[in-house]
UniProtKB/TrEMBL annotation, chains A, B:
Residues 283-443 form the Acyl-CoA oxidase C-alpha1 domain. The keyword Oxidoreductase applies. Its main location: other. It comes from Somion occarium. Its cofactor is FAD. Keywords: FAD, Fatty acid metabolism, Flavoprotein, Lipid metabolism, Oxidoreductase, Peroxisome. Transmembrane segments: none annotated. Coiled coil: none annotated. SUPFAM superfamilies: Acyl-CoA dehydrogenase C-terminal domain-like (SSF47203), Acyl-CoA dehydrogenase NM domain-like (SSF56645). Belongs to the acyl-CoA oxidase family. InterPro entries: ACOX_C_alpha1, Acyl-CoA_ox_N, Acyl-CoA_Oxase/DH_mid-dom_sf, Acyl-CoA_oxidase, Acyl-CoA_oxidase_C, AcylCo_DH-like_C, AcylCoA_DH/ox_N_sf, AcylCoA_DH/oxidase_NM_dom_sf. The keyword Oxidoreductase applies. Gene3D superfamilies: Acyl-CoA dehydrogenase/oxidase, N-terminal domain, Butyryl-CoA Dehydrogenase, subunit A, domain 2, Butyryl-CoA Dehydrogenase, subunit A, domain 3. This is Acyl-coenzyme A oxidase.
Length: 679, 679
């Protein structure tokens, strides 16, 4: 038995579970998309977590080369397990996502293979498809360069067609044209897909296209002639440590003509260019990757929320109550006011992820049948949600980490690692600032189309611009009187109205826009879309869950809407939308009070359910890998046990004691003795 | 000569320097507090940067035990240099601050020694003072425990007085009472000052007091009997890697009675307690440490601003202009709108730091002469500024890092390291959320005192509550008409008025306060104080600098005030303060537009000065240690050179190729072959 302090921790979390009314298994199945998917998750998690290859205990103590070596071992083992257990590709993806360590093969599976499969010609597919699926070759996706990231049109690598030999010559003309940041390129990948400027005979520049290229020998993994490869070095905050993000330059490297990914655009033998049917046909891949991100962000927030809420439930600090115990920190307003909104966003983004997945499937089918009209809408929704959800998850993980107090800065708390590995998501797959511009541009276009339409009606509106329906109503002031902070419909109306005001104002001032307009408009439009979806989820809850669970999750999603409104207060107030009266001179009245009071009340109502709501994420201790988030609440024992694994604790004397520390101390002692002799 | 792309980089930064009108050396001297201090800085920076012991190139590749061993080497060397060069303690501190690596001796110098010197009795000082000054012993400050951080009153470690032997017995009764997070404790320190509950004969508990204790033998560094020491393990995001933050437990360890730090409180031989003259007399140390933080935060922001502004000046991306070049990214509104406000905060906090230093000296003198009335004000100002400046610096470093785009995630960009080492500042020396509570409590008290005063006048107000002077004026509406975004006085008035509104409202609703009230009130009060100080700086500028420089820095500080107002818009709008008209129904007018336009205009005006304003921070390339912030602008060459130092690039084949990667590839190739044989 542990000392009294820890027994109390265990007691606290146990009691919290007893008090929570939520049916954990039912809500968990709902979050996983059904009991079957939860069972699948459990089965795979058991296999992976019991395998010593995936043990996480030593990771914090390995240097990068060791972490990388270890990742190869993991990649090999996970593939063995896939074959042993006959995992489907969904099951295999699930297993990879459980490793809690981004590895090179992720880039093969999520970037290289999908692009190749979607855009290679049939002969190329026949030759390499099976090799790719079975990891007989490993690929990477070579897009960004040292000098260019989001601006694909300005990439410098060239692919010049040589009609004589029917080859392309891949070349890196400058230092800045070196491919850079490419995951898996430095040491792992044998092949790659290169984005390069297509140059036709006579020097005609066609713009960026994709080319399949072999990088290393399949015999001995040696680098092929004309290619220079290397690792770009370690990443910030110890993130993505095990991935060999690499650089590459090409010195007039020849590849066969049929290595151009030519499902859409083609070059004839003589060097004529054949345009793709739709200029943006090849963007499907990027949209697909982005579509996954909302859901992933939701689960990232869920991890942080679980750790922080469990710890805040067992951590006691402050004056002692009548029971002789200090107060559980989760009962402090400044703590629950940070953690419950995070929990609500985890639920909202996970559910949004489900939905985007469904919408994406429908749209993909239409796209496959040649209907490219859906591309713009898909692009807007996935761009907006990608920017919103990654900005949010990055921020929420850090807010949760800070709520852990001092111990949050320990590696063993687990949230530093989560933050570092999540952080590049704000930049990759489209820098969020660039995506905001595109979302805003689409919103302006949708607005102009709608107001110039001869017979505007709600049926003309796509989901991303549904808020424009408010233009059809003449009720500008109706809302003011009717708003209720407990009615989700009102909250959504308000968020839609805010989106409309911002877009309208932006259209009117497009030529003298302020410097943050794109960010604010994009956020307002995307939050309006998300809120409308959340309202749909709320309506569907009673059919999916028992009454108590449905009601609790309705409250949680209402908290999501309320805190979204709170973060939108500047917009609401500046456009004279409720909350309340803010006329000049009323300096002692704060019209935002009622919103904040509603948030506080809802937090207090949800507080007893917070442990159940986090348990419903279904994370095992192995998955969370956090001393502060252990299921049984024995956080201090866990921190203590982990500290014993630190290599410094296995050394009798500190490294460098004799040469440095002893010398320093002795010299100081002599000086002090000399001084005291002087006295 | 480098390739064309890089020559252009060098050209861009050179041209930017030519265009900047600022007199870099004059502004630099101003920021350093005078030419003498700049010269001192240069001299010491030269010594340290040229010494191979402080070479930074290998740090990213060392594991923690190596980084720690290396830190001992640095500690020994810096002390040698101190003696060789006869550095004053200020010069020595400067040298330590340049190491860009938090090391254990920092805790000796900044926590252990000041507390010991301020609170030890004269006999103890005579015995150990010289040893401490000369690093003949190294100390740590043992306050936080596994179970308790900010709530010092609940610490569990006991110091029980034994009258028979005139000793104290230091004891750790529980797992949670173990000292934890103590910098330098695990492997470095020979001695420490322990916070422990004083227990007198008969079991009378007196509360936490400080005791000096020896931890390790000075002969062989072995741990003394009854003491268990160890390292708590690695820290999040690779921060504070080289420091051996430790744990300790004490098993009835006896120390002599005169090892209690008894300058203020004492215990007689028979076990009677003698109270200190002022209950908070011993808080001076904490206040001193916090007083340094505003300035340190300012310089942290300065580093991030320098890196990001230099990179944004040479990075080109987007459509090509008439000169055939892409656009410098700093000219994009979404970029300069992020970076120039950061620059303004660097200046504001550096200058605030100077000022707090001066105020602190005056207050210290009064305190030394027994006048403890100043303690409360010192506590409020330093707590508020500590919370504000560390929240700001943490955020600004990350905003700057994101403005670097993809390359910002490279270790070589330097901002990840800056972020990780700065991050604990939001938690240590008082968790910011706890400090906010204290600042708000002080503001409520000041308000109540003032309004209940018989003859309230401005002279009664301390600097932290100067905004209460607005209560003396009957001009609630006067401001509305008069506001000018270019007049700093108006901006400060508005920030003071906002503070007053928030405090008033909070006092009126103290029993139904919302959950974030403490944070908002504390921020408003502290920003009001900071703004009033900034106004003083602006007035003093013409005497300190030439007209052009003074005018540019006035603009920069005005930008600080404007962006502070922008971040306060919810408060301003909700209390009906300007900007403008926000009455319901005016849905297409945005009253915040004029403020945002003013910010944009000022940013555009300052843009050509941004390189000069960052050069004036005087950072050498060695100090910044950032490939993206190199002085000559050759960022891509620097990234390239750094990448060559990655150990993975020195291995012919990846570690684990034969055992794992080759096995994986071969198996996949066989499977693919089997499939194609089937067809």
């Amino acid at each position: 038995m542990g000392p009294p302090g820890c027994a109390q921790n265990a007691e606290d979390v146990k009691l919290a579970r007893t008090r929570s009314r939520i049916e954990v298994s039912a809500v968990r199945d709902f979050l996983y998309g059904g009991r079957e998917l939860w069972d699948e998750h459990t089965e795979i998690a058991n296999v992976v977590s019991e395998d010593p290859v995936f043990d996480k205990a030593q990771r914090p103590y390995l240097i990068r080369t060791e972490r990388y070596g270890n990742s190869l071992k993991m990649m090999n083992r996970i593939q063995q397990l896939r074959e042993e257990h006959h995992w489907s590709s969904r099951e295999y993806s699930k297993a990879c996502s459980l490793l809690d360590e981004p590895v090179a093969v992720d880039l093969h599976d999520m970037a290289f293979a999908p692009v190749f499969m979607a855009q290679a010609s049939q002969p190329l597919l026949s030759k390499y498809g099976d090799l790719i699926t079975n990891h007989g070759i490993l690929g990477c996706y070579l897009q960004t360069e040292l000098g260019h990231g989001s601006n694909v049109a300005s990439l410098e690598t060239t692919a010049t067609y040589i009609p004589d030999t029917r080859e392309f010559e891949i070349h890196s003309p400058t230092l800045t044209s070196r491919k850079w940041w490419i995951g898996g390129l430095a040491r792992t990948a044998t092949h790659g897909v290169v984005q390069a400027q297509l140059v036709l005979p006579g020097g005609r520049m066609i713009g960026p296209h994709l080319f399949f290229i072999q990088l290393r020998s399949l015999d001995d993994h040696s680098i092929l002639p004309g290619i220079t490869l290397g690792d770009i070095g370690p990443k910030a905050m110890d993130g993505y440590t095990a991935i060999d993000n690499g650089f590459a330059s090409f010195d007039h490297v020849r590849i066969p003509k049929d290595h151009m990914l030519s499902k859409f655009a083609q070059v004839t033998d003589s060097g004529q260019y054949i345009q793709p049917p739709h200029a943006k046909m090849s963007y499907g891949g990027m949209v697909y990757i982005r579509a996954q991100i909302a859901s992933r962000s939701g689960w990232t927030i869920a991890r942080a929320a679980t750790v922080a809420i469990r710890y805040a439930t067992v951590r006691r600090q402050g004056n002692r109550g009548e029971d002789g115990l200090e107060r559980q920190i989760i009962t402090y307003p400044s703590v629950y006011n940070r953690l419950l909104p995070i929990l609500s966003r985890a639920y909202a983004f996970i559910l949004l992820g489900h939905n985007v997945g469904k919408v994406f499937s429908v749209m993909s089918e239409r796209l496959a049948s040649g209907d490219t009209s859906v591309l713009a809408e898909m692009h807007t929704i996935t761009s907006g949600l990608k920017a919103l959800s990654t900005n949010t998850s990055t921020q929420d993980v850090e807010v949760a980490r800070r709520a852990l107090g001092g111990h949050g800065f320990s590696t063993f708390a687990g949230l530093g690692r989560l933050y570092a590995n999540n952080l590049p998501s704000v930049t990759y797959e489209g820098d969020n600032f660039v995506l905001d511009q595109q979302v805003t541009r689409a919103a302006v276009k949708a607005y102009k189309n709608f107001v110039s339409s001869k017979s505007p009606s709600e049926s003309l509106l796509s989901p991303s611009s549904l808020y424009l329906r408010l233009l059809l109503k003449d009720d500008t002031n109706a809302l003011t009187a009717l708003i209720s902070w407990t009615n989700p419909r009102d909250l959504v109306d308000l968020l839609e109205r805010r989106a409309l005001c911002l877009v309208q104002h932006h259209v009117e001032h497009i030529n003298d826009a302020d410097a943050s307009a794109d960010q604010r408009v994009s956020r307002a439009v995307t939050e309006s879309f998300a809120a409308a979806q959340v309202l749909v989820f709320i309506k569907e809850l009673p059919a999916a869950l028992a009454a108590t669970d449905a009601s609790i999750i309705t409250d949680l999603l209402t908290l999501y809407l309320l805190t979204t409104l709170e973060s939108a207060l500047v917009d609401l107030l500046s456009f004279g939308l409720p909350p309340g009266d803010s006329s000049p001179g009323r300096s002692s009245a704060d019209p935002t009070s009622s919103l904040r009071a509603a948030i506080k009340n809802l937090c207090l109502k949800l507080l007893p359910e917070s442990i159940g709501l986090t348990d419903a994420f279904g994370f095992s201790d192995w998955e969370l890998d956090s001393s502060l988030g252990v299921y049984d609440g024995r956080v201090y024992e866990s921190l203590w046990d982990k500290a014993q694994t630190e290599p410094l604790n296995k050394m009798e004397l500190p490294p460098g004691y004799e040469e440095h520390l002893k010398v320093l101390l002795r010299r100081g002692q002599k000086l002090a003795a000399k001084n005291s002799a002087k006295l």
